Amino acid sequence: MPDGWIITVDDSWRYVGRADLRQYTGKESAISRAQFMACRKDGSFVIKNCVPSDAPSGTAQTLLDGKALEGESELKNGMKVTVSDVEAVFKV
Predict the structure, then answer these.
(1) Which one of 11, 19, 26, 56 is most buried, by most CB atoms within 10 A?
(2) pLDDT at 73
(3) Between 43 and 57, whose confidence is greater?
(4) How do residues 72-86 score in pLDDT, each as one tens digit?
(5) CA–CA distance, 79 with 89 (Å, rounded to integer)
């Protein structure tokens, strides 16, 4: 992902999906319209997977530091979020 790409996250859930990531991938059809959500919650940042477990085959999974994101997880500085062939590094 190019340097300088920023998604602002605040106290409300921010959906991230195909519209946000399409310019960085050649595989946009594999990315869900609502791939994951992120927000600030109780002083920490959290990420939540939005891709259902019964999604069609070929739908990209959301990975957090290389592991499938299931449910909600805390985001810490430097963690990598990967969707299809797009990788982003979380920075506070």
Answers:
(1) 19
(2) 96
(3) 43
(4) 999 999 999 999 888
(5) 6
d(CA 29, CA 57): 12
CA separation, residue 53 to residues 31, 41, 60, 68 (Å): 14, 25, 11, 11
3-class DSSP state for residue 55?
coil
Three-state SS for 75? strand
Residue 62's DSSP bridge partners are 83
Tokens 């605040």 locate to: 10
DSSP string, 3-43: TT------SS-EEE-HHHHGGG-S-GGGS-TT-EEEEEETT
Nearest to 21 by CA among 82, 90, 76: 82
